[in-house]
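Retro notes, structure queue

What went well: the backlog is down to a handful. What didn't: a couple of records were mislabeled last round, so from now on we paste the full input next to the output in the thread. Example, using DUF6817 domain-containing protein from Comamonas terrae:
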Amino acid sequence: MNMPWNRLDADLFERAQALLDEEWLARDADLAPLLPVVLERGVGQDWHKAGTFRHHLAGVARSLALWRQPRDIRLLGLLHSVYGNAFVDLVKFDAGSERGRMQALIGEAAEHLVYLFCTMSRTQFVQKLLAGELAADGSMTLHRNGPEPRQTITLTPYEVAAFAIVSMADSMEQWFSWQEDIYSRFPHVDGTRQQSVHWAASLWPGPMRPSSRMLGQIAGLGLALQHPGLREQLPLPPVFGHCSQALDAGAEAAAVALYWSVVQLDQPLVDADAAIATLEQAVRLNPWVGEPQMVLAQLYLGAGRDAEAALAAESALQCFSAWGNAWDKRVQWDAWIAWTRILLQSAREGSWPQRLDKLNNIALKQ
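Corresponding output:
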């Protein structure tokens, strides 16, 4: 059966390469002036899901930069939680007294997006967007956070599109098995589960398995951008066929289980045939993330199947370049890309080491 390999977009890969080192933010003329202001609030010391709050804010902004979003949207990505929100109790700027300072720093239009994103009901926003509850022009009416009676607000089509795209990047950057367990079935969270009963699910960071259901939700947010009132508002992210494809929930869950069975060495170890077949099926079920394809490329190389390894590695690079964040969060996005480039180089040269110790010596040839 043919594999759903992705072709590497040279322009997208070049944009991704420019964002690989941590200094990319300091080189961004729009975002760099905000760094000292944000860092002085201690974001590099705050815990946040799979890293620190700084890692999270920078990771969201990185995806938005990769997706060629305009200045105000990239600023929103970097600052999307600084006034706090219903999900995290991390208030870095007081919305009651510091909005003027933020407006002076980034402009009133960008600050308005940040304030609105932090204070609206993001749970209700995701619920409505996934359900297609939009007006004919793409606008949306929902509530602000806070006690009842909550204020009703109406988002413009531009704001809906902006918040959908930032939500896609936000979810991809942070979601993995620990968050999936404690925040199960978001945006319809079951609030009855007690930590004392489900203590095993609460132990951070847990096994760090990729999420079994969030990627399909991100695809749903992307599909919502095909609404006639939203489609032309902002550049469509280059994921899920530029937001044109869904990911079936059953296929996503099965693909994660198959991938995890291989990386946890639950497949026969003497020969790689079973592991290769398992990963091939995972990729067929979910061709939108790079990690299963990257591991498959390495198994192909070990089996002497260089041509197939090159196709898998190139396809994995395309996925990594499209997301700007890792799906499997055991290592960071730039590390996944670095190893995948080694695999692609080795596949093209037919030079994969035959001895275990030589794996420690391989390097990318510039």
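Agreed that this is the format going forward. Reviewer comment attached to the example: The chain has a mean pLDDT of 94.
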